[in-house]
Amino acid sequence: MKLPIQFRSSRSAEWLLLLLVATAVGASAAPVDPPLEAFDGCPAWRWVGITPEGAGSCPVPDSRPGFDPWTVRRLFDPGGGGQIPPGLQAFCLYENPGVADAAAVRDLLLGGALTDLGSDCMAIAPLGELEDQTWSPLAGHFLLQAGQSPLPVTAGPPTRLALLDSGATREADAERFPGNSPHGWTLANMAADLLCDGGTCRADVTSQLALPWLSFDRKSRSASQLNEVDGGFVGTLGDLAQALRREVRAWLAEPPPGRRLVINLSLGWDRLFGGLTGPVADMPAPVQAIYRAIEDAVCRGALVVAAAGNGFGGPEPNRGPLLPAAWELRPAPTGAACVAALEVLPDPADFPPPGQPVYRPLVHAAGAARADGTALSNSRFRGLPRLMAFSDHGVVESHLTDQPTATLTGSSVAAAVVSAAAAAAWSYRSDLRADEIMQTLYDGGVDLGVEADFCLDGRRADLCPPQGGQTVQRKRVAVCDTVVELCASGGGDCPDPSELPVCPAWPPAPPDLTEVDLPFAEVVDAGDLAATLLDPVCQGESLAYDPAFVPADPCPHHQYWDLARESWLGPQPGSNPCPNCGLDPGAAGPAESRPQGGGAVLLLEIADDFEGVLTDATLKADDVTYNLSGVMGSLKAGDQLKVIGLPVTGEEKIFLSVTLDGERSAVAPLVVK
């Protein structure tokens, strides 16, 4: 029997040693936070259990004096008097609104009434704002990079593209309902722009709420805020499992027959919460529920795309993909394996012929790329898959107003672009299987000349083995390129090849920010950043700072958990502090060789709705860290600032971090001209 929550005492010892080393060298007086444990995100008042095979109902915990009774129900709702697929019937949800007796639920496992039990951890978070002055050129650049083009109109039925995210559940017009978090709404607007033209859409963009919690308290259900109408900022593993099943049920209930479904998961959870290794039966019960729900969708012919994940910052390395994107390592179920999981036989046409070698993982991961195809600065180490898409400061004009959506940077955007490309392709060739559509995306992509970090059938010794004798390369996906690749030889509902669009050239020119005018911006010169030293707290990086102002916190991105990583400890902020920070390399070069007024220019606009005071602004460019405290001071919502004379070229892996209220850091990627 495995424990529902695993504790890692060795990690505490490792970080105690690191703290002692940092203290011994006296490099910085700034504190180093301990790593977060998975336990912090796992409530005592919400659990997922698995019943033995053949159990007729979910067992009910005993009621004890001083505790509130448990609410018990099947995790997956059959809906409308329907049936829960046999493979999903064993999952039960236990929730307590008051004083929860967790021991009573555990007793069900110890007594054999449940075969597995796990806390339904608050582990699901979205992966991913310059303000009015700069969004327009960025929006045009995003649509060029994502491959927007006039898509030919044919008689084929539109695909259903479902965004399981922070957006409210909507069967239509998902792009018109912002909700509490702008994340899912922004992705819906991006998808609509890529798939619709002149009122005709190659896919219907729907949304299914998977992140309904505004705030979370692991000890108290009543102290946690749930909004099932307008959504929230985070979700439990069980929430995602339920959203998957609701979406499949809604898809199966709608006409026309044979309509294809693409499920977009621009969200994820850390491996601390389980699911990365071992058999499915050994995963925590809530993670098993997600896995089985995805299997159920794939068995019915649906396609699942998941964001590979962003680096969160903080004192722990961000290695490998997040879940569920890491399940690209695992094969999709065969037709024979699906029979046991469904109440009806799967369609044989959705499965390749026996013995035919195809690339058919359970989930297709999407990785984040810059304009030139290189990995984004917030990508995870060894966490990039074979499918990449532009994801650097994605923003579009809202379909609700003439104002911009949020600006998102990271694999959330990549997943949306890949999903849109698949949805567009499937609308022309609904006769093709999901694996054939995804192979078309790959074949039509731009070869980036770098091998993928992980792929189907990867193992610890080789996370991306050759496929068909060939190494797996990263490819850049765009909507227009995919449609042209698919329909070049006709077939299905494809138009005549002469009617196919001419795709934007790649790489397009960078966004033009020269016309951006910040009339009230303060201009400061970073030319005094001449002192350099090696700081162990900066992990051996060169640290440059104003010698007249020794920073109290030289490397906040190595000292504090950033805002996104704290999502299970409270409400997740809806935006970065400097969402569209921009960098113009200009006449960049070594400080001693720069002409007067030369060097890179850093353009900052702090979001109008950001709360808190920002200090210790730090620009990281490869292995050099520039602490700008001496020239920038503190910043708050609405502040605008230009920093001139930075000795960087723009070719580096570069981002900006700032300390919020002296306690934690936030990381803002940069638009590099």
Radius of gyration: 25 Å
CATH topology of the largest domain: Rossmann fold
Name the CATH superfamily classification of the largest domain. Answer: Peptidase S8/S53 domain
Question: How would you state the average pLDDT, rounded?
Answer: 82
Quantity of strands, as a count: 29
Distance between the termini: 55 Å
Unreliable spans: 1-30, 563-575, 587-597
Shape: globular
Total domain modules: 3
Structural class: alpha/beta
Number of DSSP helices?
11
Helicity level:
10-25%
CATH class of the largest domain: Alpha Beta
Overview in brief:
With 673 residues, the protein is α/β, with parallel strands linked by helices. 19% of the residues lie in helices and 20% in strands.
Question: What is the strand and helix layout of this fold?
Answer:
Layout: H1 9-25, E1 46-50, E2 71-74, E3 91-95, H2 102-110, E4 116-119, E5 125-126, H3 135-146, E6 159-165, H4 182-195, E7 196-197, E8 200-201, E9 203-209, E10 213-215, E11 225-226, H5 237-253, E12 261-265, E13 267-268, H6 285-299, E14 303-307, H7 335-339, E15 364-369, E16 387-390, H8 411-428, H9 434-443, E17 446-451, E18 473-476, H10 479-487, E19 522-525, E20 531-534, E21 542-545, E22 582-587, E23 599-605, E24 614-621, E25 624-627, H11 629-632, E26 640-646, E27 654-660, E28 664-669, E29 671-672
Parallel strand pairs: 6-9, 6-12, 12-14, 14-15, 15-16, 16-18, 19-26, 21-25, 22-29
Antiparallel strand pairs: 1-3, 1-4, 2-3, 5-13, 7-8, 10-11, 17-18, 20-21, 22-23, 23-26, 24-25, 24-27, 27-28
